[in-house]
Records
---
Amino acid sequence: MIPEIGNFSLILALLLATLQGTLPIIGAARGIPSWIALAKPVVQGQFVFVLIAFFCLAYSFISSDFSVLNVANNSNTELPFHFRLAATWGSHEGSLLLWVLMLASWSVAVSVFSKQLPDDVVARVIGVLGLVSIGFLVFMLFTSNPFDRLLPAAAEGSDLNPLLQDFGMVVHPPMLYMGYVGFSVAFAFAIAALLSGKLDATWARWSRPWTIIAWVFLTIGIMLGSWWAYYELGWGGWWFWDPVENASFLPWLVGTALVHSLAATEKRGSFKSWTVLLAISTFALSLLGTFLVRSGVLTSVHAFATDPARGVFILAFLVIVISCALLLFAWRAPKVGLGGKFDLLSRESMLLANNILLLVAAASVLLGTLYPLIIDALGLGKLSVGPPFFEAVFVPIMTPAIFLIGIGPISRWKQMSLPALAIRLRWAFGISVVSALITPFFMGEWKPMVSFGLLLAFWIIVCAFVNVKHRLNNSGEGNLLTKLSKQSRSYYGMHCAHIGVAIFIIGVTLVNSYETEKDVRMEIGSKVTVGGYVFQFNGTSDVVGPNYKAVRGEISVLKDDQFVRNLYPEKRTYNASGMAMTEAAIDTGFFRDLYVALGEPLSNGAWVVRAYHKPFVDWIWFGCILMAMGGITSITDRRYRLKIIKKESTAARVAEPEKQAEGTPAAVASATTKVELATETTKV
Amino acid sequence: MMRYLMPLAIFMVLAVFLLIGLTLNPRQVPSPLIDKPAPKFQLNQLHEPDKIMSSEDNLGKVWMLNVWASWCVACRDEHPLLVQLANSGIIPIYGLNYKDERNTALQWLKRYGDPYAISIVDTDGKVGINYGVYGVPETYVIDKEGIIRHKQIGPVTVDSLEKTILPLIKELQNQA
Amino acid sequence: MKPRHKKLVMIASGVTALGVAAILVLNAFQSNLVFFFSPSQVIANEAPIGKSFRIGGLVAEGSVKRDDGSTTVHFAVTDTAETIPVVYTGILPDLFREGKGVVAQGKISDAGIFLADEVLAKHDENYMPPEAAEALERAAKAQRASLAQ
């Protein structure tokens, strides 16, 4: 009964989505207020029905209803409660339902938090989101219905993939999907603006917080995925340039470009059509990612069930949505007009350069990902493109972009003087070079690549400090604290995110250059030294888990003959599927991780053991968290909060956007000092 | 206007490649056994363990070899189709029971129907290896001279049956 | 600077960036593409000598041997027509089994032995050993979806 309710709710949601995707858009075009007014109740209704469907599926999983095919295939009575719940979105069908639920949640959020927007804009945005929603609901109902019955019912389910039975997997997909789906809001805003023909700074300011939230979710999602791969796959790697990883990384790269381009559009009205194109591209890449993962055109460890019918459907959807969007773009964008003029050396040009570099990087990653497919399509053979390709291309392209992270925030809008900038940054450059040259000695060995990586990281950090100091000097009277509190949150957010990039680079550089990996044969009592730590193998014992049996090794770690701790890596065999899984044991530290995994048993109780020493590896994920925190900080900026409060009191009034944009000195991520802004306005 | 159409053009080129990609299977390694003699085997029968079936018994007729197992969920899905096909009498289907246990296999056939003229038992999977079995289910079409003409990786579907397998069988049966 | 010159400089720098990227990509492609060959192709001398490539097939039954006192493993990869001996030092993936699909990356030695520096167990839904039943379930779903149409 419950699955039927779920199925029925999905059908009702589809009906409502159809209303949501048509009436408000037509209403906005023809000026029919009653149709425009339909947008909000319809989207909220759709959300409720999708939510009901989701609860129905979750209930089927929790109650182990094996008459539902999806449950029988992905769950098991031995599975602990939290994993049965997580199994709801562990399969292709379930994850689609989660996707649709998130799309509905974002749409409802738009309908609730957009009281300050004109009704016709909201109606268009919600309408476009409705169209996207139709696509996914139809896809789910016709090719991947999560409520399909299995008759006769299975006596026992065949278990969730053991790789997915992990906390990281419980939270990674929802975060990632929140990001993917969130970009559909940016997309909807862009399309709405194209439809209405009102592409201006106001539009940029409205869509900016949404874009940043989506970007934050995507950042966290990718970070969790990387962290999960690190401790769960048993190889100690954190990024594999696997097609599916690339599929999530591509929208991130273009989304990052979008976040920066929106800043320029909001502050200066420049790059308008470019920003719209980026919003469309980001969403297109999110859909492309879905296509790559679920159609099976590429081989990947992550691939979901592959079915040509599904592939055809998503491809058709992708082509329809994106071609319509790009056609609309080609039709409307020429009329948009150019924004404020700017000099060859200005913050605009820096942002433009950053955009181009990010896009070129994304294009080369896309090429590397699709190259096997293209070669196969041309009948030239089967091949794979490995991580060395991506490293050889990605790093040189991103290097100048990272260099610009330091300069960009210091440079002025419209026009700046190179000598002045050079004078301001010469100390910053000197300090970063010297410290980058010296630091590797503390790690034990000087390597040119380490110095290079550290130079980029230190450059970002020192430039941020120069920027903050300069800004405080120009913040009028008062002691340090008052001056600090005068700065906007978006200003801090920007630096937080940029320093996150620096921390990330430090982590990557140091772990790649100084990690030690040893695969060794260990008998009971034998020792191996890795990265200054002694690992002593004390033998194994058998343990029984809730739905698996495992061999657990005990390894004592010693440093300078002092006992550090015991590590307990496991080799599990899951009862239902019989699948073997390596469960690594990790001692996490601020400066290093110790990583131990059991390989395979040898004669006489000996094992092949993998022992790693990974310096600074956690900085990689910490850097990502900082980036995400930067994003969150900047959207809590006063200007966004104030607006919501103000709009609630005078909901009917539509603000005069242009004036407000000029009158808000505290810019978001890309802030200028008041002095600079003042000179600019006089020049205008 | 033209330059604003550029993104659309680039996207379309990409879409064409994706579409072609969709028709290809990145995992498909051309089976080295197609158009080669089917590997010979002599295996015990499932229902009557004392009897042995040899691949040479089938010379002179077109037949199908279906690799299946009771632990295989996908087999359960293709099974109704096989039963239907067997009932139609178009072609005899022989089952290679792969890495399975006799009792569960027999129960499984009782429950879901038995489309097989004879089921043979490949407990250790050695014959499966000879046939290049990557997984279960797999289905081979073998002609009158004992030559493999087609290999279906994964479950037989209505689509693959109607478009590929049935026309092929008809053609092979019409050969002298 | 005149606007026209400004535009020129911008286009020039854009083109340069793309050009540099293209050179990087081509250069990286040249050295980092890994082609895939079956054991039959390797026996037929179709695979490159001295260059890294991938072979794929099944791990031949009874071929896996571990050296005593080291982590070196010997096994053979077969596509049922031909068989190639493989040597690998290190830990094999969880899904590595005799009779199961495998992909190895490395070079072929003069003696015709494949020196693998990476071993990947195949893990997709067409590869359905009893031990990896989860893979089948996915194929089952795909199957069901196509039946439903």
Note: The radius of gyration of chain C is 23 Å.
---
Amino acid sequence: MTAKKKKKLVKKEAKKTVKKAMKKAGVKKKNTKNAAKKVIKVKKKAAKKVVPKKKKVSLPKKQNAGKKPAFRKAKAVGTSKKRNIKVDVHHLTRVEGHGNIVIDVKNGIVKKCQWQVPEAPRFFEAMVRDRHYSEVARITSRICGICSVGHTLASVKASEAALGIDITEQTRNLRKLLKHAENFDSHILHIFFLVAPDLLGAPSVFPLVEKHGPVVAMALRLKRLGHEWGALIGGRTTHPTTVVPGGFTKLPTEIELRELRAKILAHEQDLVTTADLVLSLAGKIPNFNRPTEYIALSSDDDYELYSGEIKSTLYDGSIATYKVADYRSVTNEYLTPQSTAKWTKNRHESYAAGALARFNNNYDKLHEKALAVATKFGLKPICTNPFMNSVAQLVEVVNDVYQSVALIDQILKDGIKDEPLVRPTKFSKGAGAVEVPRGILFHEYEYDKDGMCISGNCIIPTNQNHANIQKDFEALLPFVMNLNYNNDEIKLAFEMLVRAYDPCISCSTHYLDIIIEE
Amino acid sequence: MSKPKVGFFDFASCEGCQIELTNFGDVAFLELINHIDIVEFREAMSEKAGKLDIAFIEGSFTRESDRKRLEEIRKRSAIVIAYGACAATGGINALKNHQHDYHECVYGKDAKAPHLASNIALPISAAIKVDYSVYGCPMSRDEFIRIVSHLLHDKQPIIPNHPVCMECKLNETICRFHDGDHCLGVVARAGCGAPCPKDGIPCEACRGFVSTPNVDSLVKTLINKGGMHSSRAWNKSRMFTNNQRGDVK
């Protein structure tokens, strides 16, 4: 069979799978059980090979006995026994920051299967020392260009905790609206510019301009909306200006907010089109599951992006909660030689942060229209397929739109009031957390009596996902070998996995207080 | 005339200037790619190209190991443009350049680990010849378009060298000092349109100093008009202009 024919076959099969999956969303068929069992078997074996010292991962069958693999049927396990595979992706493209994928299989034995982060370290925690509290968020915002809104918000929250500043209801609501804008903006960027090319079989978004002109125009239109929405509240979306400890230095007018509300709702049809587009490509999302721990901010009254405490849901449904101030007991950072970024771990061997983690923790707080999209894709808690993070992002995009409209209504009902910045009442140490597009983000600072920063610590979601990506790698390799993927397909599957996490690597390469494990 | 081949590259940075490109929206962005052929852009595309007419480089030069990659880009590019503060001046990355213990502060006892090697942050002009710079953190989208447009028309791009104060006057923005705040706009390079004072925050000089800043006078102004104590006033301008100060390195 030629490669082209093969590809066609794969496409056909993928289409069938989607149809089935849509019809029977979540329903398991008995003839797929065997295949799934085989996968588990191989996974266990491989886990042994890759990390011989560690205990076997206990994989509950229920979580793993998923639907039929999307790419192609599982073939006999033995066929991949004596394979040689070499994948060396230096500076993976279409992710934010620099990361390498290194896979080396000799005679069917895994020699190396690594997610490496070689991004140049940037030393932000050293930079904030001896800077005034009014400057700190402006400095740490520069950690990341995509989530600079999130870094700014986490930073001012931490500073406010350290300075004893209690912000007003209006500030809180406007910040929530700004947080939704960032989530929307970043997810749109990720879905269309970084993930869609893989699903459409293109190397990037640029060749899509000719073939899928209206789609690219729509993507840019939605991106523009996200930018204008954020810029109205934050001054601009890359390194916002108006967000400072104690409140806002400039407020939107009620007229501007009404215009924004109308503008957001004018894009409703684009959202439907986006969902349909992703749904038509969903068959190309590999049906790969690896049960892990999911960590996100959570509260009783909202699908949290801005407030709440830390919640952890394990693959088996067990829940734990922690105070934001105790974030270090959740992140337990450690250094590894394969990365310039620190890794984290909590109750499981690794944990995931991000849209899927938020979905798994807080799905019951989603807007009904967002839940409807989740149902369309068969996305249900607790979903253990990391590739589904992109679908969870789509669900959140819809949620951002409708929860923001409700927020704007609330802000307009209360009326915009000219409020002075709330001043510090003390100078001490404090932590703050927000959900940025890629997951939970922690900032912590300590200030001296003049309001100058003594020390800072930032723990970025991509850092928290690095270990989880590595563990996924170790499980994905036997999975794709078992499906007899050729080397190009394997490379693509690994690249897609990393892109599904939407990693922001430039963010994550800086840390404080190194703890070495083992 | 065939469209010029353009590549985008990144080094130590937040990659926010790349993101600014996507913030043009549908109309401006689609118009832009009518005039230039983007052939290499790691964050957005998997393709890699050969000869380039224009290379846009983002991020600071912080590791000796990055020199080769920079030289390789220089070799195959007719014009090299440093875009964004990190590439143009070292930007925020240089804020640690006056410290001697930043490795230990961040990495503790692992500071000497080989894969964590990183030196002080320098503009990319410290490694290769740079033809033009687009200043700012983030870079100004309007200025980016203006420079690309100038180059397409075979004109020399004009990079402003007057202080931000002038732009505040044009905007009729109330001076930060009059509002009881402080500001670096008096010695900061303009060209951004002074959005920060307009939004009620001081200029932090993200585009760097003008070519001949009177730093002593700045410190005096920060003390007398901005109400700062002398050590804070002296250190104030480090955030984006550390490499341009006399007391670094």
Note: The first strand of chain A starts at residue 85 and ends at 89.
